[in-house]
Write a structure and sequence with these properties.
Layout: H1 3-7, E1 10-11, E2 14-15, H2 20-52, H3 56-59, H4 66-82, H5 86-107, H6 120-124, H7 132-146, H8 157-172, H9 174-183, H10 208-233, H11 247-253, H12 262-268, H13 281-300, H14 307-318, H15 328-337, H16 347-373, E3 378-382, E4 385-389, H17 393-408, H18 421-425, H19 439-444, H20 458-468, E5 474-482, E6 496-504, E7 528-535, E8 538-546, E9 551-558, H21 560-564, E10 569-578, E11 586-593, H22 608-615, H23 619-624, H24 626-646
Antiparallel strand pairs: 1-2, 3-4, 5-6, 6-9, 7-8, 7-10, 10-11
GO cellular component, one term: Sec62/Sec63 complex
GO molecular function: protein transmembrane transporter activity; RNA binding
Organism: Paramecium pentaurelia
Length: about 650
């Protein structure tokens, strides 16, 4: 069977033909279904960025400091260009092509007169008042023109000639004319006709190979590529937007006694940062100078086992062998922590590196919590042996301490008071025998109770006080309750709830909290508070609270007996750790008691509605045996009637 015979059926004098008009309507419908969601995906980023301003509320929360304002402008600039990606440009090109195709399809729509029913006068190109002689003359003229023998290249010539013949018969045969008037067809009432909504050019032999090639290209090349691309992107990133391929690296590096500076190594070896490459010779020169400055700074700070210094020494020992390379990200991170000025040639790399680290930290914390909460021990084969390690509260705390250092741009050994610009940059010019104030005390005190040291010049005090007020004054409350409020005596089989409430006191009610304040961070960042509830150093609950709300809450529900067995006295430790600020973390004990279940007696009380339900038949039984109830009722009525008769 040939290509044409596969799509054309001969039978009862009719052909199942390709219908050009139906194909146009079908193509317009399919194009519309494809174009509408594509238009939405193209317009949405423009509409939300320039019309709605979905980040307007978020950006309005940025504190009014110089560095924060600079970060605000950079964030707005990135937001404007965020949508302009290669994928977005490809979408626009595809949309334009589809719109052109849709326009061509609309232009090709059949005219209204073409959709009319069977009109023999129109087919013969005569007036309805034409005589029989004029009808025959028109038929002979058009039949000579449309005869299939004279149009061998027209695949529809046979159909056109048949239509012409039927039009002639309809006007010359009274019986067929009456059928045409009644049913709209000289053949009388017709059965359902079927056509194929495909263009007729597919019937031509020269188009068969091209059509089949396009079909095979779509099915065997284009569709598999799209599916594989989507499958690769699915499950590639975690909820923080960090690649899941980092998980194995983090598992190897995280440990219970994790040092804060270990975060530099873990971050710089992530897949996002280890691929950073220099593009110009000037970048290499500037980076080499920066390495020497970091080496000198590490010696002044008396940092032992400084990674960059060790890498340089090891590189010198290699000589002709392969030289040890230092991670570019590690150099930029240490330059940020030491407060070194960043060369202009690598500022873009520096900003993008520091910007992503809080997300990497969140992924590390989530991973450490998962293993700690589920009582899992991490195992892997190394050098032919199994090694195990446990990650608890200390590990999570140190990871977050590293995040604090990154956001504030200070090293772990620096005084937290350096988070305030004056004490970080100008205090050394004025302090002599005085002492630095304690950062936490300054922040947590009320405004009228804050006292700065005497050596601080008067012209800087107002500026310092304003900056202190940008840091959060946090009120932490916790409440231990049982789900059933009617319970007087609590036992270890009840469901307990520990509710933690964080309130930012120096933010007025009804207003959004600002973004995290920092004089060194390279991007805007929301204040994040990580809540840990531990018992004997094992983390049982973890939650991350962030956003614009002044009051934020989280709740931990548990049954003591399921977790701790017959223990009746509990002493949890509540950790509230910031991922933005140094020195503002809180550690609060939570103590409560619960008796054993066999030590208390509780009366079991049934609700009145429950008692009534117990007396009634179950729903399924009443549905399955409805007649049984009627028979029993009739029997009881008969017994009552017989008793009355006996009486």
């Amino acid at each position: 069977m040939g290509f044409k015979e596969a799509f054309t059926r001969q039978g009862d004098g009719e052909n199942l033909l390709f219908d050009d008009d139906a194909f146009i309507y079908f193509a317009i419908s399919i194009l519309t279904l494809v174009i509408l969601p594509l238009v939405y995906s193209v317009i949405k980023p423009l509409f939300t960025t320039y019309v709605l301003g979905e980040n307007r509320r978020k950006f309005a929360r940025v504190p009014q400091s110089s560095n924060d304002q600079q970060n605000l402008q950079l964030a707005k600039q990135e937001l404007r260009l965020k949508w302009l990606t290669t994928g977005y440009v490809v979408k626009i090109i595809i949309l334009v092509a589809l719109l052109l195709l849709l326009n061509a399809s609309i232009q090709s729509l059949p005219k209204a007169d073409k959709i009319k029913g069977f009109d023999p006068y129109e087919i013969l190109e005569i007036d309805p008042s034409a005589t029989e002689q004029e009808i025959r003359k028109a038929y002979r003229k058009i039949s000579l023109k449309l005869h299939p023998d004279k149009n061998p290249d027209d695949p529809q010539a046979n159909q056109k000639f048949i239509l012409l013949t039927k039009a002639y018969e309809c006007l010359t045969d009274e019986d067929k004319k009456s059928l045409c008037m009644k049913y709209g067809n000289p053949d009388g009432q017709q059965s359902l006709s079927v056509g194929i909504a495909m263009p007729s050019f597919l019937l031509k032999k020269e188009n068969r190979a091209a059509f089949l090639a396009v079909i095979f290209l779509l099915l065997l090349v284009v569709v598999p590529i799209i599916v594989l691309y989507e499958l690769r992107s699915i499950g590639k990133y975690d909820q923080n937007g960090i690649m899941l391929s980092n998980q194995e690296k983090f598992e190897r590096g995280l440990e219970e006694n994790l040092l804060i500076k270990k975060g530099v190594e873990l971050s710089s070896c992530s897949d996002e940062l280890c691929r950073i490459r220099l593009k110009t010779e000037q970048q290499a020169i500037d980076l080499e100078k920066l390495v020497n400055e970091l080496k000198e700074e590490a010696e002044l700070r008396k940092i032992q086992k400084f990674e960059i210094t060790e890498a340089l020494e090891q590189s010198k020992k290699q000589k002709k062998k392969k030289r040890v390379t230092i991670s570019i990200a590690m150099i930029l991170i240490y330059a940020h922590l030491f407060g070194k000025p960043i060369p202009n040639s690598v500022k873009y790399l520096y900003r993008s590196t520091i910007k992503i680290i809080p997300k990497l930290v969140n992924s590390m914390v989530r991973l450490a919590f998962e293993f700690s909460m589920k009582y899992k021990v991490m195992q892997w084969r190394q050098r032919g042996r199994f090694q195990t390690k446990f990650m608890g509260a200390r590990c999570i705390n140190n990871i977050l301490q590293f995040s604090q250092c990154i956001v504030q741009g200070i090293y772990e050994t620096d005084n937290p008071i350096n988070q305030i610009d004056f004490f970080a940059t100008k205090a050394k010019d004025y302090i002599k025998k005085g002492k630095m104030p304690i950062f936490q005390e300054l922040v947590q005190k009320q405004i009228d109770q804050r006292v700065l040291p005497n050596w601080v010049p008067e012209e800087f005090k107002e500026q310092i006080m304003n900056e202190i007020n940008m840091f959060p004054q946090l009120d932490i409350k916790h409440e231990v309750t049982v789900d059933d409020e009617s319970i007087v005596e609590q036992c270890n089989e009840d469901i307990f709830s520990i509710k933690i409430t964080l309130t930012r006191l120096n933010t007025p009610e009804g207003e959004d909290i600002p973004f995290a304040h920092s004089n060194r961070f390279t991007y805007v960042k929301e204040e994040g508070w990580h809540v840990l509830i531990t018992y004997q150093n094992e983390v049982f609950y973890y939650a991350q609270l962030n956003g614009a709300n002044r009051v934020q809450t989280t709740e931990f529900k548990f049954q003591p007996k399921m977790y701790f067995g017959d223990v009746v006295e509990f002493e949890f430790i509540l950790f509230v750790i910031s991922d933005c600020y140094r020195g503002l973390d809180a550690e609060i004990p939570i103590k409560f008691k619960a008796k054993k279940a066999n030590q208390i007696s509780r009366a079991v009380e049934y609700h009145k509605e429950d008692q009534e339900l117990d007396k009634s038949l179950p729903f399924i039984q009443s549905m399955l045996f409805p007649m049984q109830n009627k028979v029993e009722d009739s029997d009881s009525e008969d017994e009552d009637q017989s008793k009355k008769d006996d009486e």
